[in-house]
Amino acid sequence: MNLKILIFSVVLGVVFWSCNEPRDRNLDFSFAPSLQYESPLVGALYSRCDSVPFEFNQKMAKAGNAYQNNQSDVESLIWYGRRLGYVGKMKEAIEIYTRALKLKPEEPRLYRHRGHRYISVRNFDAAIADLEKAATLTHGKEDRIEQDGLPNDRNIPLTTLRGNIWYHLGLAYYLKGDLDNALRCYTKRAGNHSYDDNVVSTAHWKYMIMRKLNMDQEAEKALIGIDEEMDIIENDSYHQLCLFYKEAIPQHQLMINSLSGSSSDAVVYGWGNWHLYEKDDPEAAKIIFEELLKNGNPFSFGYIAAEMELKALQ
Fold this sequence. Notes:
- This protein is mostly helical.
- It has helices at residues 3-20, 54-69, 74-86, 90-103, 108-120, 124-138, 161-176, 179-189, 196-212, 216-221, 236-245, 251-258, 264-277, 282-295, 301-313, and strands spanning 35-39, 43-46.
- Helix 6 packs antiparallel against helix 7 (161-176), helix 8 (179-189) packs antiparallel against helix 9 (196-212) and helix 12 runs antiparallel to helix 13.
């Protein structure tokens, strides 16, 4: 057997064993695919650990071992939940956060992360309840930088706990179709900007919401200050979309610049959505959304938003 294959097999076996032999026998967070959501449009959605980089599975196993060694440590629970989510195990992550909340029921980070994963499994009401709770628990308190589980190229954490709470809460309201509350959340998030990445991500959602609410003049104001010279570290998709909304780049350049990597789902959704409110062309939007549901990541925000749009169109 090739030496590299042998080493890989041994390491994989150790990680697999660590995931399959937890001390808590009620948990079964293995590499095996697990049902996450039954979509009326695309059918059953499963986690697939074999479809993500091996490094992610290693980190999930390491986080799982840290949790097993100290099941009362909230930090270990948070990171185990985050790592489970990165490999598509959203329901398992929700279970971990729920267990952690029994230990520390007033910890806002647990509501923030569980709310995020409720979005992943399309339980928007539960997501809203958790994220509103997180917003209440952090109100009037000092904000904190939120460390990245998947660091960017510069290894600079770009977001804060409060900023992420408002971002995901706004998204949950948006996906549910409550545009007024979605706009409220993204307006509040605008006060948590330290990097251009956060400026463009907020502006993107505010612009779309305002256009859907027929607030066209206000939508244009949301794009003030956005230009091609911004220092964008990781949110290239939102930056390109905002430039497209400003007519600073044409459609074909939007697609060429942005259709690479996992962020492409956001671009495709934004482009399809633009056909709804700008072109009043639901048939074109429907084609774009259907293509996204064929080829996209079922747990990306762009994919979920396209799924909700298609559901409304049909």
